[in-house]
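Notebook B, p. 112. Complex prediction, attempt 2.
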Amino acid sequence: MDNLARAYLPRIAGLALAGASFLAVTAAEAKEITIWCWDPNFNVAIMKEAGARYTKTHPDVTFNVVDFAKTDVEQKLQTGLASGTADALPDIVLIEDYGAQKYLQSFPGAFAPLSGTVDYSGFAPYKAEVMTVDGQVYGMPFDSGVTGLYYRKDYLEQAGFKPEDMQNLTWDRFIEIGKQVEAKTGKKMMGLDPNDAGIVRIMMQSAGQWYFDKEGKPNITGNAALKAALETVGKIMQADIYKPANGWTDWVGTFTSGDVATVVTGVWITGTVKAQPDQAGKWGVAPIPALAVDGATHASNLGGSSWYVLESSAEKAEAIDFLNEIYGKDIDFYQKILQERGAVGTLLAARGGAAYEAADPFFGGEKVWQTFSDWLSKVPSVNYGVFTNEADTAVTAQLPAITQGTPVDEVLKAIDSEISGQIQ
Amino acid sequence: MKNGIGRIATATFTYGFLGLMAFLSIFPFIWMVLGASNSSIDIIKGRILPGEAFTANVGKFFTTVNVPLVFWNSAKVAIFATVLTLAVSSLAGYGFEMFRSRHRERVYRAMLLTLMIPFAALMIPLFIMMGKAGLINTHIAVVLPSIGSAFVIFYFRQSTKAFPSELRDAAKVDGLKEWQIFLFIYVPVMRSTYAAAFIIVFMTAWNNYLWPLIVLQSNETKTITLVISSLASAYYPDYGVVMVGTILATLPTLAVFFFMQRQFVQGMLGSVK
């Protein structure tokens, strides 16, 4: 018995030691990066693809992409940051661009600055502006909401307009065309949800203005672009060329059902437009109409979001390297997410890839993605500030007054006082 | 003294009104079932006829969602929460009514006042507590805050007022200890109250959204309400699939309600006595 023990003990001990060191090695090397984001078919699927690509070259790093609703991600992030419970936070989180400044400024030190690592000059300029605080740039730019004017070629042709007639319009011309479209085809020009200020934001940013100036102070009463945007919405309503929609679903229904001739919104709607196979070949894409103010352009943005690394993350270095390797450099990745998910990234070099250069039969063989990425580089930079959502609420509340013909200057004053009241 | 026409008019009005109200309350349910059989586009267009996409929607739901795990999570949370809440809160309700002390009413009122504090205000302190206890992302953390429920204690105390104190006195004479009286006399007598409380607590726990959302952090621990919320918030939500999820999420509460309906009504009547 003793002999047996003596013979086997060293072996057992050796095995145990080997086992222990093996365990220790795995513990030191295996890293799991936890990511919170929303939309299982879009951000979640894209992040899983990105993670799989990184794991291929870095087998020791794996990814846990957790899928919550957008408002849920925001709520959880807010609670986690406010409670100071660091282990309750993920390593990477997705934040919508409109809300980025709020988190960055309300929780200084909570997010890791990426200025030294990421080459922001390769991205659409407006995107880096969104995530800059005191000269430091946080976050990895992700998808874009670069805007376009989607139009039904068939309806417009019936009304006597060719695709050339839709290029570089002004909003006044757009309204004129809308009147003729209705007279000739009986279709309204666009869907409009009176409780959604998205169209106002699109118009305002296209002229390089926002609810706030570069210093983050409210910019309402002296904001020529906002004034022109509200006036334009008023004109659209007076001309009665719109189909009213009640909420997002209803608004989407205005064009999926074929009831309206155009849609002005972010590029992410392309997937929804294309979800109607019976409308294939009937759609065209043009730049959005311009306002009649100084600095007006035909490019703007609606929505879009970016990835942020938490400073408290145990895997901070890996998380930053991952974002930089995939989202900062991998052109092929951007082709794949464009093809599979219709996601237009903000890395400008991605437009050279095959997927961006492909012609889309749904849009009559137009190279729509190339077109959108051209506009992307032209989107005017603005400071979304901390209170975009509050300002948006104030504007939405005043939209009915515009419909009733209240002078725009009075409406601006009302918006201004509501915002000042809210953010004090 | 009413004449025939008057009576018919009254009846028409009564049944018309009742019918309308019944329709209003049952319509969301019909819409949910019809929606599950339609494609997302048809739902957006407002189609209220049965469609042909039901199997496709069910298939998509089962491929995107780990259904057994999610339901297991929800069931675990709801059942533990219900059993523990009933055990703890009914004891408290019994105690409040049976034992007299100088400060009883004051404590009771203070407890009722906590009903006025919105959960959103308690959320962050509670979250910090759970963080310190190392319970973040566990189902224990979901269940714990709900088991001492002021509302259920209140409900049990009100119902206990109808519990005949002679029964307790008789049991005492027979030599039963307090815990025996509770277990063998009180619980069987109050079973319709328990049934009603069971339905209320089970539904609340099953449908609970905000707190599980805050405290659960991974795909493996999520409950059905969180999964549906995330499905519905996509940029292009597939409403047909969301409706399938909603139906499945409704079934357990529906089943509980139908099985206990009779006791529920009795329990509700009992509490007003």
